[in-house]
Amino acid sequence: MKMITFASLKGGAGKTTALMTACGSLVSKGLRVGLLEADENAPLHQWRKYALKKGTWNESCEIEDAVDLQAFEAAYERLEARDMDIVLADTQGGGSEFNLTILASSDMIVIPTALTRLDLDSALDTYALVAEMLETSDTPDMPVGILVTQIPTGRLTSAQSFCLETIQGLPSFDCKLPARNAFADLKSVGMLHLYEVALSKIPSKRIAATHISTALKDADTFANDLMQVLGDEHAHS
């Protein structure tokens, strides 16, 4: 069982949204996905709560509280005992010792960032923290990638172009998550593939369902990239 950790020293960069996006896509491929929630605000539990009300949750995904080291270790063992295929961990904000422990226990680290100078600076700080940690760890070659989120679907501003050029000088994912309403609303709609099915059954919502289909392609590209980096047998081309 491999673990991918989503980390950012700053809130609002798209960390939890990126995790939920990947989770839904991986589950739609038939994988059993465990989620470790270290964030005390419990956004993943809230996501599941809303999804259950809408009928857009797949029970192949299970969430465990991991708000401190003891809870994290116990939660990981429970997910491992349930034969989960992969675990996605959502960290707390900041560079606490607990966060560093989660990062050091990972098989891959994803650092999301939007194309603003504030988000970019935070992503660079997070990357520097991770790089320093890996230098003294037992897994110095752990894959780490910066993921661009909330990228405009139209022309970039000069400031956004500068941020993108800066990121391209660092290990980063080729795929990017565009600024789509489907991602912005993800927390309240549940898993996208199930939400698309629900919308397609309502005649007046079929156009909205096509917008979800577009977002699903982005989500699948991201999930496939994650699995290919891990070298997992479940990776899809």
UniProtKB/TrEMBL annotation:
Q: Report the SUPFAM superfamilies cross-referenced here.
A: P-loop containing nucleoside triphosphate hydrolases
A Pfam family per the record: VirC1
Q: Which domain of life is it from?
A: Bacteria
Keywords attached to this entry: Plasmid
Q: Which CDD domains match?
A: ParAB_family
What NCBIfam families does the annotation carry? Answer: PRK13849.1 (NF010423)
Q: What is this protein called?
A: Protein virC1
Q: Which organism is it from?
A: Roseobacter fucihabitans
